[in-house]
């Protein structure tokens, strides 16, 4: 085995293989293995470009290895003149060669265009010690600028990947460089890895700034020139069109960033994640960056991360937006989204279709569905991808191809898919074909279930009364169905995406949707198992359901108790309680209340210390009335209800943390104001003023913040005395 690894890089329609500079200790077999490994996944007919410029002089054995690999392929060797002579003098006369990547990428007899057609990923690399060449390159790649160096040395290495106005660059400057740059015209994010950027001043700033390792900053407003000095630094630059900020914020006017440093560390980390996703998962994977849906999604993701990280001018809300955020707006917006899932869509287009402002659309989705328009769009595309996976033939299609059709990169698609459906997409693709009910994330879920029941009107469930399975029931039998409640369809579609104000709101909606879509249900309830082991009914459709739950909770037996326990079965069913033997005390009480059959599905616990487990239970007054289709619907409802509960718990935790942070900031500000008053009145230093406040707090037995608030609120009275 060899440690040599050559990473293929897509550049336009070609794939570039760059050989590392140190190959002295590498054997011909190892190089051949690395080349075949890197080029093995390249589609037939794709041009391969082997970049040898970092290697130096080529020994004869290396030239023969390269020629052997290149001879039967559409391959071009990029080499400097001395290297080219080494190849030509050997057996390489029949292999095409070029002096630069541009020449290698050009069509035979044609002229390479300086920029690719729209939608193609562009890659470039620059490596020079010449100050003049470096200034010329930087001026063409960024904005007109003047650079300088006291030593005359200009060791510069730059790489870039870009598509449709998005670019991700890495820069390594091994010298001290001064710069004076004209306005960039773009949002420019700088993340310093090593070294420093010093004396950075943007036109209009009162003071200079310095950035070091770990700093992620907005380098300069798009319309301002700037100056400064780079001191032997490695850093990354990410640039995009400022118009993306307006689109992401849903406003018509340009959005300006009001600060150049992130407001908090968490927001900075989120922004780094977005940049890494653009660089590694979209621009760094051949073919992915040429998908317009993927590019649109990553553009918005990056813009939203920037708005979340930096203060900006689009944080206000117009007074009339709340009045427009009604159900008609929501219906028009959803209709537009569902009709345009296969093309890039932004918030401005959705708002135009709904005939309201972008802010009103966002408020409508938040108010009625507990989500955002773009989150709804992503989930709707995920549902379409799942539908394709369920009908695809594994030998003819792949997960990556289906994910790309709906605007997902493979890694992001796999993570979102598993979170939404509880299984990897490959499991759905390769599952044995058979009758299936669609995911509850789609409005067609209930319709599909009812169609299936209509096709099997005569079939009935024959589950043994003593059965206790832990696997999901088959959808092979069904019972007659009524036309589904159209209002319930919309509620069901929003269930997974909702993030209500409380757990009570979530479980009540779960119960209401279950009662609407499960035909055999006469009573529905949700049992919650607290971390201390106590059971309680969180929501139900009637007093009889609460009484049936209470009997099970008090006696510690019954279907909802067993389903809710962590060590219980995956689901619990009894088709006829009059013949049930597992829970004698419960069955006696249940039959007395008129209940004849029951089905209970678990609600898996979510993450965190306050996680809630439980069970969704459906009761029927008739035996054998809960069909397989009904049971599958309950299982899917329970799964997505668990996700909704987890979202609500996370939201509640985040709100508590925000409130705590706000109180901490308020406390700090009040104490700082009090210190300033004492410093001004008494001529104290900051430490002396704080020490005085602390002593007064102890002597008066009053909290320090309360004392500071009193001082800041009444210092005018003190000045009059």
From TrEMBL:
Q: Which Gene3D superfamilies match?
A: 3.30.450.40, Homeodomain-like, Winged helix-like DNA-binding domain superfamily/Winged helix DNA-binding domain
Per the record, where are the segments of Low complexity compositional bias? 469-483
Keywords in alphabetical order, please. DNA-binding, Kinase, Transcription, Transcription regulation, Transferase
Q: Does the keyword Nucleus apply?
A: no
What Pfam families is this protein classified in?
A: ANTAR, GAF_2, HTH_18
Q: Matching SUPFAM superfamilies, A to Z?
A: CheY-like (SSF52172), GAF domain-like (SSF55781), Homeodomain-like (SSF46689)
**Residue span, HTH araC/xylS-type domain:** 331-431
Q: Which InterPro entries match?
A: ANTAR, AraC_XylS_family_regulators, CheY-like_superfamily, GAF, GAF-like_dom_sf, Homeodomain-like_sf, HTH_AraC, HTH_AraC-typ_CS
Q: Where is the ANTAR domain?
A: 651-712
Region Disordered: start and end of each range? Answer: 426-483
Query: What protein name does the entry list?
Result: ANTAR domain-containing protein
Q: Which organism is it from?
A: Amycolatopsis halotolerans
């Amino acid at each position: 085995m060899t440690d040599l690894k050559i990473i293929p890089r897509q550049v336009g329609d070609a794939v570039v293989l760059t050989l590392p500079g140190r190959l002295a200790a590498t054997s011909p077999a190892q190089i051949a293995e690395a080349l075949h490994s890197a080029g093995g996944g390249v589609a037939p007919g794709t041009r391969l470009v082997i970049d040898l410029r970092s290697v130096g002089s080529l020994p004869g054995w290396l030239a023969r290895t390269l020629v052997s690999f290149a001879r039967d392929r559409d391959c071009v060797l990029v080499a400097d003149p001395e290297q080219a002579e080494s190849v030509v003098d050997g057996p390489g006369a029949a292999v095409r060669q070029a002096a630069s990547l541009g020449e290698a990428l050009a069509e035979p007899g044609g002229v390479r265009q300086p920029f690719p057609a729209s939608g193609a990923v562009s890659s470039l690399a620059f490596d020079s010690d010449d100050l003049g060449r470096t200034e010329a390159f930087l001026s063409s790649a960024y904005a007109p600028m003047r650079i300088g160096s006291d030593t005359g040395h200009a060791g510069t290495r730059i790489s870039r990947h870009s598509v449709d106005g998005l670019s991700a660059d890495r820069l390594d400057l091994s010298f001290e460089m001064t710069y004076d740059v004209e306005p960039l015209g773009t949002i420019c994010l700088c993340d310093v890895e090593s070294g420093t950027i010093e004396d950075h001043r943007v036109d209009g700033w009162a003071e200079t700034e310095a950035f070091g390792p770990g700093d992620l900053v907005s380098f300069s407003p798009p319309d301002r020139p700037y100056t400064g000095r780079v001191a032997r630094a490695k850093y990354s630059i990410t640039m995009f069109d400022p118009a993306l900020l307006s689109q992401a914020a849903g406003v018509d006017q340009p959005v300006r960033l009001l600060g150049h440093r992130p407001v908090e560390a968490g927001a900075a980390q989120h922004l780094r994640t977005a940049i890494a996703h653009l660089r590694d998962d979209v621009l760094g994977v051949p073919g992915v960056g040429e998908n317009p849906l993927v590019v649109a999604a990553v553009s918005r993701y990056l813009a939203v991360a920037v708005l979340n990280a930096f203060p900006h001018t689009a944080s206000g809300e117009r007074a009339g937006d709340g009045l427009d955020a009604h159900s008609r707006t929501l219906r028009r917006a959803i209709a537009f989204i569902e009709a345009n899932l296969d093309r890039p869509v932004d918030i401005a287009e959705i708002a135009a279709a709904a005939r309201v402002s972008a802010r009103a659309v966002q408020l409508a989705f938040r108010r009625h569905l507990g989500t955002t328009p773009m989150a709804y769009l992503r989930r709707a595309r995920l549902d379409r991808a799942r539908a394709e996976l369920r009908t695809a033939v594994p030998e003819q299609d792949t997960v990556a191809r289906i994910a790309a059709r709906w605007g997902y990169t493979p890694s992001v698609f796999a993570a979102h898919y598993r979170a939404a459906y509880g299984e990897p997409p490959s499991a759905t693709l390769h599952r044995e074909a058979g009758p299936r009910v669609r995911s509850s994330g789609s409005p067609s879920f209930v319709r599909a279930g009812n169609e299936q029941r209509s096709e099997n009107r005569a079939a009935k469930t024959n589950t043994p009364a003593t059965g206790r399975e832990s696997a999901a029931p088959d959808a092979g039998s069904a019972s007659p169905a009524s036309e589904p409640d159209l209002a319930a369809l919309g509620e069901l579609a929003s269930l997974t995406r909702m993030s209500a104000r409380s757990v009570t709101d979530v479980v009540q909606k779960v119960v209401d949707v279950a009662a609407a879509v499960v035909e055999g249900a006469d009573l529905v309830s949700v049992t919650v198992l607290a971390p201390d082991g106590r059971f309680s009914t969180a929501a139900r459709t009637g007093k009889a359901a609460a009484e049936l739950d209470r009997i099970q909770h008090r006696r510690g037996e019954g279907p909802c108790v067993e389903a809710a326990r962590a060590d219980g079965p995956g689901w619990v069913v009894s088709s006829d309680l009059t013949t049930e033997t597992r829970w004698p005390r419960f069955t006696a009480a249940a039959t007395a209340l008129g209940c004849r059959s029951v089905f209970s599905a678990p609600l898996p616990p979510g993450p965190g210390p306050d996680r809630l487990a439980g069970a969704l239970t459906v009761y029927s007054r008739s035996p054998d009335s809960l069909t397989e289709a009904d049971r599958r619907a309950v299982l899917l409802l329970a799964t997505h209800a668990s996700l909704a509960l987890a979202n609500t718990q996370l939201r509640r935790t985040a709100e508590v943390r925000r409130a705590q942070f706000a109180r901490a900031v308020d406390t700090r500000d009040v104490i700082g104001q009090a210190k300033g008053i004492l410093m001004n009145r008494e001529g104290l230093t900051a430490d002396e003023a704080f020490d005085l406040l602390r002593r007064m707090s102890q002597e008066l037995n009053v909290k320090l913040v309360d004392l500071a608030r009193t001082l800041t609120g009444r210092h005018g009275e003190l000045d009059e005395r």
